[in-house]
Q: What sequence folds into this?
């Protein structure tokens, strides 16, 4: 008879004590998922510690916790651990400076599919992008799935998390970076000179970039659509724009 035990994924930490210890040890954690309506005193204490570390917390149905934790008892709470430490925005700028190159940055505005994030990191690393920046909330994090989809590129790419993407764009512009948002009804990307200090913003798989982020960009660039549908997969669009920018930097 086959063993029907379902194992938790490597980035899932299940149960009150394991989650508490992960927080205490300052292990990088993407987010904590807690059962909706969970009021147990131990869980409340864990969530307080998580918020002190500014770890996002989300309430979900127990069915989702059951699925993610496999056969491990989750006791109403799990943590999704990051595959590696996050960098900072300053780390990305410092790396570009160390290479004697103008900053080349990818900004992902709520890209939620871990396979897309992994694929973007892989392409970015191959093209010499200095760093990828994602928001702390409503975004895929550096999970095991992302690491696998990146084919190991996540180990070499500086990935930073920020609280607010629109504020980040203001900071990038103040530091001399020209920001290009990928969206519909913009300038044909082939007509854009993306050499020099450059950040490319890729939006959510369904909604695209948010209105405020779009307004903050220096320029909106579009990829021509000749078929019956009017959008590309986020990682495909990112790849095209990354290599267009690379051509101008060569």
A:
């Amino acid at each position: 008879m086959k063993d029907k035990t379902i194992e938790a994924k490597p980035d899932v930490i299940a149960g009150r004590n394991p989650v508490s210890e992960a927080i205490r040890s300052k292990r990088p954690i993407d987010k904590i998922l807690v059962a909706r309506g969970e009021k147990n005193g131990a869980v409340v204490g864990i969530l307080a510690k998580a918020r002190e570390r500014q770890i996002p917390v989300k309430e979900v149905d127990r069915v989702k916790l059951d699925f993610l934790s496999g056969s491990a008892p989750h006791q109403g709470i799990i943590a999704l651990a990051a595959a590696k430490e996050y960098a900072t925005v300053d780390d990305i700028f410092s790396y570009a400076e160390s290479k004697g190159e103008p900053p080349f940055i990818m900004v992902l505005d709520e890209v939620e599919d871990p396979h897309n994030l992994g694929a973007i990191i892989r392409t970015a690393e191959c093209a010499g992008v200095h760093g990828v920046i994602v928001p702390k909330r409503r975004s895929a994090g550096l999970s095991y799935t992302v690491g696998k989809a990146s084919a190991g590129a996540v180990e070499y790419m500086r990935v930073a998390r920020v609280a607010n993407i629109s504020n980040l764009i203001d900071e990038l512009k103040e530091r001399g970076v020209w920001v290009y948002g990928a969206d519909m009804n913009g300038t044909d990307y082939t007509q854009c000179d993306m050499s020099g200090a450059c950040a490319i913003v890729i939006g959510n798989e369904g909604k695209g970039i948010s209105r405020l982020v779009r307004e903050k960009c220096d320029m909106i660039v579009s990829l021509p659509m000749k078929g019956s549908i009017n959008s590309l997969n986020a990682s495909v669009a990112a790849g095209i724009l990354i290599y267009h920018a690379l051509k101008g930097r060569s």
User: Anything to note?
Assistant: The longest helix spans residues 234-249. The radius of gyration is 20 Å. The chain has a mean pLDDT of 90. The first strand starts at residue 12 and ends at 14.
